[in-house]
Recover the amino acids of this structure.
């Protein structure tokens, strides 16, 4: 298939409620929607899930626009590919910038599966009809977080992740455990702790948490390994994992027991499958993470989570968790506590391009016949 046109649509939407983490609060969300067209005008959609600020990764919306515009798009345009993994291989010659790579490759995965009349889940090797999912509760007063959990339980979520900071961890978790002693519960500190906080983290062992996500800095594999030896709660790595090589380091050093895979963070779906296969071989439990993304990336994550190795419910909450209105139809929704894996070709949902254009701040168009 020849890539004859690419469009980048820079959009911005307010979040339904502010999303507070240990490093900052998100109130609105910029995203780059990627549209790739073949010579017959058939198109695929992807999303660059970088944030506006370099908090979660060094990559941002603006750096992604730069790498896409100046490097990645010029080498893809007018080229012929027979499988999306060839795009990942071609982009390997450029370092990092995983989210920009993932947005492009994701759009091509959608186009590829559409042209082959198979669902994205089928194209990736998924085998589940529906998936159990979890939801994330952002930092707030413990009593308000407790109330949020109550309403999410009613909606049917099966796993609850609460954002904590090192000042608020014990109070938040003990408040929740008092009311809900047995719900599947985990915390995410987004690197707020350091090695001297091990005694503090040890105290959380009493709460029977599913895992503690990314307590230390992203390059602190050694420190995470020291922590994992000291506590009984499994450590899960998020920000630390940007490639299969990082997974191998974490495994060999015993820096964690669980890994969360985000296509954007590891450079795309091809890389995500490689990590999935390695983790299945090594018996490392994995789950699909979230990026407060639009339905385009969310429904792509649903397809990824249908692979057999993803055994823990991921951060794949319904469209209504973050958005008044999503960009896809039908929106991501819970049916009896689960999200159905689309069966139609490609992403398997309608993309509301009119709405995307109406919330676009800037549109960049690239075609072979400029
Ligand atoms: O650490 O997983 C994270 C959101 C923004 C930045 C970092 C993280 C998150 C989430 C995902 O927790 C929440 C979601 O997409 O619903
Ligand atoms: Mg995280």
């Amino acid at each position: 298939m020849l890539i004859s046109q690419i469009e980048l649509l820079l959009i911005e939407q307010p979040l339904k409620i502010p999303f507070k983490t240990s490093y900052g609060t998100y109130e609105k969300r910029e995203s780059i929607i990627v549209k790739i067209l073949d010579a017959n005008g058939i198109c695929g959609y992807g999303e660059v899930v970088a944030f506006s600020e370099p908090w979660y990764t060094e990559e941002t919306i603006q750096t992604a626009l730069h790498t896409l515009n100046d490097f990645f798009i010029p080498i893809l345009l007018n080229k012929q590919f027979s499988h999306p993994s060839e795009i990942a291989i071609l982009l390997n010659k450029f370092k990092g910038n995983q989210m920009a790579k993932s947005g492009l490759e994701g759009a091509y995965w959608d186009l590829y599966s559409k042209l082959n009349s198979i669902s994205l889940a089928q194209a990736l090797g998924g085998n589940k009809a529906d998936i159990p999912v979890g939801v994330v509760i952002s930092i707030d007063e413990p009593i308000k977080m407790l109330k949020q959990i109550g309403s999410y339980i009613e909606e049917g979520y099966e796993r609850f992740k609460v954002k904590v900071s090192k000042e608020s961890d014990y109070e938040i978790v003990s408040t929740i455990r008092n009311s809900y002693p047995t719900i599947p519960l985990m915390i995410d500190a987004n690197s707020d702790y350091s090695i001297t906080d091990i005694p503090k983290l040890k105290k959380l062992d009493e709460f029977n948490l599913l895992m503690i996500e990314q307590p230390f800095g992203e390059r602190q594999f050694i420190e995470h390994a020291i922590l994992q030896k000291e506590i009984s709660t499994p450590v899960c790595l998020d920000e630390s994992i940007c490639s299969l090589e990082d997974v191998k380091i974490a495994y060999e050093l015993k820096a964690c027991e669980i890994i969360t895979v985000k296509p954007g963070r590891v450079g795309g779906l091809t890389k995500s499958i490689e990590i999935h296969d390695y983790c299945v071989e090594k018996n490392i439990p994995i789950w699909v993470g979230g990026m407060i993304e639009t339905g385009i990336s969310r429904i792509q994550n649903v397809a990824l989570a249908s692979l057999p190795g993803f055994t823990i419910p991921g951060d794949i909450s319904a469209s209504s968790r973050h958005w008044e209105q999503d960009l896809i139809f039908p929106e991501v929704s819970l049916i009896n506590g689960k999200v159905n894996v689309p069966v139609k070709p490609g992403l398997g949902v309608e993309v509301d391009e009119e709405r995307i254009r109406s919330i676009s701040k800037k549109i960049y168009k690239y075609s072979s016949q400029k």
User: Anything to note?
Assistant: Residues 21, 56, 136, 188, 190, 238, 289-292, 315, 317, 321 surround 2-succinylbenzoate (ligand 1) (CB under 6 Å).
